[in-house]
Amino acid sequence: MIKHLMKSIREYKKDSILSPLFVSCEVILEVIIPFLMADLIDNGIDAGNMNYILRIGITLIICALASLVFGFLSGRSAAIASAGFAKNLRKDMYDHVQEFSFSNIDKFSTASIVTRLTTDVTNVQNSYQMIIRVAVRSPIMMICAVVMAFNVAGSLACIFLACIPILGIGLYFIMTRTHPIFERVFKTYDHLNNIVQENLHGIRVVKSFVREEHEIDKFKRISQSIYKDFTRAEKNLAYNMPLMQICVYGSMLFISWFGARLIVVSGNNPDMGLSTGELMSLFVYLMQILMSLMMLSMVFVMITISKASAERIVELLQETSDITTPSEASETVADGSIDFDNVSFSYSKNPDKLCLKSIDLHITSGQTIGILGGTGSGKSSLVQLIPRLYDATSGTVKVGGVDVRNYDLETLRDQVAMVLQKNVLFSGTIRENLRWGNPDASDEELIHACKLAQADDFIRSFPKGYDTYIEQGGNNVSGGQKQRLCIARALLKKPKILIMDDSTSAVDTHTDALIQNAFRSEIPETTKIIIAQRISSIEHADQIIVMDNGEINAIGTHETLLNTNSIYQEVYASQMKGGSDNE
What is the helix (H) or strand (E) element at residue 329, kind and residue range? Predict the structure, then answer.
C-alpha cells in the first residue's frame, strides 16, 4: 500500500526530505536550551556572575531564534510536500479512472470515486504532513530529551521510561478498536454522496412528485449512521488524552517528590544531590518527552483515520482495466463492416447470466441497420460491443474484418461514433461541445454536421448562435435539441460506423425523417446502426433486426418482417393504432 502511495510524491521528494532535516535541527536546538538554562541558573544566577549570565543568555537567544527559523522551514517544506503529494495523488487517481473500462466503472460507484478523490485524499494528505514532520520530530525529541535527562539525573530519568510502555499499550488498543469503525464510516460516506448526487440529479422529479420530505428523511438516516459511527470512534480516541495526562502528572509528581529530596541531599553533599537548575531542566525534559508522546499519539490517531482512506485509494489505483490495447495493435480500420460470430455476453462475466446469447450477424460496410426490441432485449448491449466498451464473454466481434480486441483502442473508437440513450453535453459553448467530435473542425464542418442533424436552425435562433453557453448537463436546451447536438457531435468524427442508440426519441417524427434522409444522401459510405422504438425511424433501413430476450428473433426488411414476424407486426399495429387515434 505504501509503495503505491509513494509513487505520487515525485517532484516533492526534495521537500519531503528537507522537512525532517529541518525539524531535526529544530529539535536538537530545543533540547540544548534546557541544558543551557540549567547552566545559567547554577553557574550564573546562583553565583552572581553577570558576564556568564550575559554570555549564556546571548547563546540562548541565538538557539531560540535558530530553532524558530528551522521550525518555520520544516513547516513550510511539510506543507509544500503534503499539498503536492495530494495534488499528484488526485491526478494519478483521476488519470487511472480515465483508463477504466465500463465494467471497471460499474465496480466503483460514482459517489465512491468522488469520495476517494476528495475526502480520502485529504485524510491521507493530513496524515502525510504529520508523518514527515511530527512523526519525525516526536521520536527524535523523545530520544534526545531522555538522553539529556539521564545525563542530568539518571535515577529520576527512569520515571520517563516507565511511561512509554503504558502509553504504547494504550495506543495499540485504541487503534485496533477504532480502525474498523473508520473503515465503515468511509463506506457510509460513499452512500451519503450517492444519495446527494441522486437527489440533485433528479431534483425535478423529486419536486414534481412532492417527495422532498422522503429525500430529507433518507439523508437524515444516513447522516445519523455516520454520526453514530464517528461518535463511537471518537469515544475510543478520547481515552488517549486522559491516558496522556495520567502519565504527565504522575511523572511530574514523582520528579517533584524525589527531586526535592535530592536537592536537600545536595545541600549536605553537593556531589550526591541535585541542583535547582538541574531539577528545572528535568521538568523541561519531562514536558518535552511527554509532549512528544502526545504528538505521537495524535499521529497515531491521524494514521488510524487515514489508513482506511489509504486502503480505498490504493484499491482504486490497483484496479486494472480489463480492456487494454494489445502490444501489436492494428491502427487502421479498413471499412465499416461488422461481424458477430457466435457472440454471448454477460455484464457479470457469468456464463449462466447472459444478456446476449449466440449472436451471429454480418453487416456490410455502408448499410443502414435498424434494431427493434422490447426493454431488456439486449439492443444497447449488442452495440456496445462494437467500439469495445465491453468485451464479449464468448465469441468474436469484428470490425473491418479484424477482431476488435486486436485494434488500438483509440483507433477503433475514433472510427465508431456513438450517440447514447443518455445524451450528455458539457459546460461550455455549443461550438466547444461540438468540437468534442473533432477538435480541429472548421466552422464550415460544424455547420454542415449541424445541418445533417437538423440542429443548425435552432442554433441560429439563439442570440449568440454557436457561441451560446450550454449549462452543465445541457439543462438550458430541450431534450430534442440536446439529441440533435449530440448527433452533430458524432458526425464531426466522420466515422466509418455511426451508432444511434434511441437517440431521436425526443425528436418529432418530421425532424426524425429529415435526419434519416440526410444520412442516406450525405453519408452513404458510413455504416449506420439505428436503435429505435418507433418503426418510422427504421422502416427504410436496409435490414431490420428484431431482438427478444438477448437473441436475434428475426432479420429482414420492413416489408418482410411486417409479413412474417409476430413481434414486428405487434409493434407496428400498436403504433399505427396510436397514430390513428391521435388523428
Answer: none
Would you put residue 349 in left (φ > 0), alpha (ψ -120 to 50) or beta? left
Q: What is Dmax (Cα atoms) for the chain?
A: 122
Residue 244, pLDDT score: 75
Quote the pTM value.
0.71
Task: List the domains of the chain with CATH numbers.
Answer: 13-318 (1.20.1560.10), 338-415+495-582 (3.40.50.300)
Q: What is the pLDDT of residue 371?
A: 94
326 φψ region: left (φ > 0), alpha (ψ -120 to 50), beta (else) = beta
- The CA–CA distances, whole Å, from 67 to 22, 145, 172, 289 equal 9, 16, 32, 17
pLDDT band at 582 (very low <50, low <70, confident <90, very high): very low
For the ranges 13-22, 104-113, 315-324, which has the lowest average pLDDT? Answer: 104-113
- 172, 90, 78, 171: which is closest to 126 by C-alpha? 78
| Rounded distance between C-alpha atoms, residue 583 and residue 573, angstroms | 15
Percent of the chain with pLDDT over 90: 35
Among 279, 30, 252, smallest CA distance to 140 is for: 30
Q: Are 174 and 237 in contact (CB under 8 A)?
A: yes
Q: Measured between alpha carbons, how far is 317 from 313 in angstroms, rounded to an integer?
A: 6
167 close to 160: Cβ distance less than 8 angstroms? no
**β-pair type (416-419, 428-429):** unpaired
CA distance 484 to 455: 6
* Three-state DSSP state, 407: strand
Cα gap 219→225, rounded to integer Å:
10
Given a contact cutoff of 8 angstroms between Cβ atoms, the answer to whether 428 and 445 are in contact is no
Determine the pLDDT at residue 468.
Answer: 93
- Among 41, 36, 26, 24, CA closest to 61: 36
